[in-house]
C-alpha cells in the first residue's frame, strides 16, 4: 500500500494501468483506522493484481474536494484511470475481496 497526496494522484491513480483502489481516510476517523489493517491483508492477498493507495483527506484536501468526498472511509476503484465503483464506510475483508473480484479479468 502506498500513501499518496494531491500531487501524486494523477501519476499513481489516473495514469495507472489496471485496478487501483483509493482509500480516502483520516487519522481521527475510527472506522478508517479499522479499515487500515483490512486493506493491508487485501494488499497481501492481491499483490500485483490491485494497487492500493491511501489518501489522508486532511493532507490531500484538493483531491477529496474534487471527488466530493462527504464521508469517510470512502473507497474508489479505478480501472485504467477511470473510476468504476465506490464503497463508503467500513467493509470486511471478504466484502472488499468479492468487490475487487468482480473487476479482475
Structural descriptors:
4 helices, single chain, alpha/beta, five-stranded mixed beta sheet
Describe the structure.
The protein is 39% helix and 28% strand. The protein is an alpha/beta fold. It has a 5-stranded mixed β-sheet with strand order 1-3-2-4-5, with helices on both faces. The longest helix has 17 residues, at 30-46. The chain is globular and about 35 Å long. The relative contact order is 0.24.
Strand order of the largest sheet: 1-3-2-4-5
Radius of gyration from CA coordinates: 12 Å
Instruction: Tell me, briefly, the overall form.
Output: globular
> Count of DSSP E strands?
5
Mean model confidence by pLDDT: 96
User: Major sheet, described briefly?
Assistant: 5 strands, mixed
Order of helices and strands: EHEHEHEEH
Tell me roughly what share of residues is in helical segments. Answer: 25-40%
- Structural class based on helices, strands and sheet pairing: alpha/beta
Spatial gap, N to C terminus = 21 Å
Number of H- or I-type helical stretches: 4
Low-confidence sequence ranges: none
What share of residues are in beta strands?
A: 25-35%
In short:
The protein has helices at residues 6-14, 30-46, 61-66, 93-101; strands spanning 2-3, 19-25, 50-56, 74-79, 82-88. By secondary structure, the protein is an alpha/beta fold.
